[in-house]
Amino acid sequence: MARLLAFTPAAWGDYLYWQGQDKKTLKRINQLINEAARSPFEGIG
Predict the structure, then answer these.
(1) What is the 3 state secondary structure string of 14-42?
(2) Separation between Cα atoms, residue 24 and residue 7, nearest integer Å
(3) For residues 1 and 37, is the Cβ–Cβ distance under 8 A?
(4) Which of 12, 21, 31, 39 could join 7 via S-S bond, C-beta 3.0 to 4.6 A?
(5) 45 pLDDT band (50/70/90 cuts)?
(6) CA distance 41 to 44
(7) What is the C-alpha separation between 22 and 8, in angstroms, rounded?
């Protein structure tokens, strides 16, 4: 089942900031987002 993901304007700005700054941190953020979308009540985040 696909889950809808929504960012607040501030969160989206932060996400865009990390895209241009630290690829290691961005990779971790993406892992957390994917895990939360897959299983929001279990997992790494």
Answers:
(1) HHHHHHHHCHHHHHHHHHHHHHHHHCCCC
(2) 21
(3) no
(4) 12
(5) low
(6) 10
(7) 21
pLDDT digits 0-9 by tens, 2-44: 678 899 999 999 999 999 998 999 999 999 999 888 888 887 7
Of 29, 37, 34, give the one whose Cα is nearest residue 4: 37
Cα separations in angstroms, 37 against 12, 20, 21, 22, 28? 16, 23, 24, 23, 14
